[in-house]
Structure formats: structure tokens, C-alpha cells
Specification:
The protein is an alpha/beta fold. The protein is about 35% helix and about 25% strand. It is built from five helices and five strands; from the N terminus they run βαβαβαβααβ. It has a five-stranded parallel sheet with strand order 3-2-1-4-5, with helices on both faces.
Amino acid sequence: MFTFVVGIDTDVGRAETQAETIASMPLEADEVTAVLVHSFAENREGGTVEQVKSVRVAQSRLEDAGIEVTPEGYGGDAAKAILNVADDYDADQIVVAGRKRTPTGKVLFGSVTQSVILDTERPVLVCSGDD
């Protein structure tokens, strides 16, 4: 079994790109599982990960390709959530979606992708959601 841990934010386009990339890999779909991780900055209303549109879109695309999907919702820091889930599932690969930011923007606002890459020994695939 090959396990992907996929960090999904709220951007539907990036989620579609991540799902398409995984679905197009030369792996037997019935031997692949994808754990979709969404981190809630705030969840005062008690929403579930299945209510996040980008998660639903990625899940639907992956399931259409015959890939088993497990959605996981967490609160707090997104990079830490992705890394913790990757450890919990002993992931073979982490998949994140990058977005264009200036170096100054990364310093001021942080970068989940950068943190994941720097803080793991696991392979990380960065998908671009930009055209």
C-alpha cells in the first residue's frame, strides 16, 4: 500500500491539481490511499472536514480514480498537522500545493509548503495550482 498525505487548504483549484496529480501517477489505484488533511485556523461553528469544498472536490476526484480516501481535520498550524498525520500514517509521500509568494511574503506570512519541506525526511511533492 502506498500512502499519500495531502495538505488541502480552502482553494478548490489547488485541491483539484493535487488530486489530478495523484490520480495520474503510474500506481495501481487499489494499492493507493490518500489522507486529505485540512487544518482549521478557527472552527467556532464545529464544522467538519467533509464540509470544506476543496476537500470534497479532491476526495471525489480521487475516489473516481479508485483511490481510497481518508479525510482528516485538525485545528492549528497547518504544517504541523500535515507532518503529524504523515507520521501517524507512516506516509510514503507528502503532497502539498504551492502558491506564488515573494520572499518577503513568505517571511511575513510564513509558508506551509516551505515548513513541510524543511521539517520532514519524507519525500514531498509540490503541485502548482497556478496556470
